[in-house]
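We both want to read discrete structure tokens more fluently, so let's practise on a single case. Would you supply a protein for us yourself, any chain you care to pick? Would you write everything just below, so we can both look at the same thing?
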Amino acid sequence: MSHAENGLPVGWHVARFDSFMRRVERKVLIDNEHEYSTVGVRWYGNGGFIREKLLGADISRKQQWLIHSGDIVYNKLFAWKGSFAVAGTEVHGHLVSDKFPTYTLDETKVDPLYLAYFFRTTDLSIQAVRLSKGAAAISKLTLNPPQFWDLTIPLPEIPEQQQLVRILREAEQRIMEARRLRSDADAEADALVTSAIGDRMAVYEATGCLADVLSGKPRNGWSATCDNAEDGTPVLSLGAVTGFTYRPEEFKRTSEVTVPGAHYWLREGDLLITRSNTERLLGHAAIYDGDPSPCIYPDLMMRIPVDSKRADTRFVYYWLRTAGVRATIESAGRGTSSTMKKITQDDVLALPFPASVSLAEQQRAVRRLDTIVESVAELRRVQTQTREHLDALFPALLDRACHGELRVSTPVATGAL
């Protein structure tokens, strides 16, 4: 592939935005009695959207502007975050403020779909950062219209732009399908674990209740005010036990004064259960693995004090995942909110449990289930790596395409991917 002096392939050139766009201002005076839809622009080139609907009386500035489908629009305050878009039909005829300059595009020079892909590149964000004026604070770093003209884009001729659009569109569809398959695999992995737990635990009869194998009552933690001070104490968030998996990264920090020896300090191996959450996530449990340390558990969780002479903590954990216990917890959930439900200490104590199963038999069941769970966890680790590769693939492909590094002939364009 031959290249011109600017590093682009022969036939490509670097074009300033003012060479193929023109500023357009469709002014409109706001009627206090009329309702208007206002338009925003998502970050990283992800398009325009209807931000909110407002009565004219609630719009302080009575001079606004209309946007049309096909317009180019950007957010002056977040250009450095890639807040550029080719307006779609969903925002046609709606309002933008003076923070969203609009432009018409000369489509004989630039294909709008090619431009939309360019809006998603890191190259554009880097340019916008360099050209923006003001402090680094989010609300002050501004790309004003005079500097907008200085933005540039690498351009081939229109036919090649359109060919690159076809390649990128097909690649994106394939990546989306791969993501869907990964998501399906995650769901199947969850179903496999749930089925294995159900099958193994089905042989045990719930002859008693959970209180029979505890050394005391479950106890709520402490919901300290979290300010995320760098040297603050970690406090788990609800996400730490979501999905019956302990997630050590799900915590905030508090700088509040703590009390050594208080009940809210976690110890490795503690069994936690959420006492307040959505109906589907209520009563999810996980075992604290010692990371981070020291660490506090919040008031929205309870610690379940398993008596090690009468029950294996992991057996209790697996039992809490069975369909029967899940149904009991969901039916016990109460609260005035339709989205947040709660269970009490008494609800947990009363959960059905196979209290007559020996400790040795519990440990045998745990070993079998641990083997299955670890195999699925290894599969998930591989899937996570695949997902990370997929996430990185399209941005890399996009940058290559918009810098002339993805030039292929039409007959092999599809097969090349």
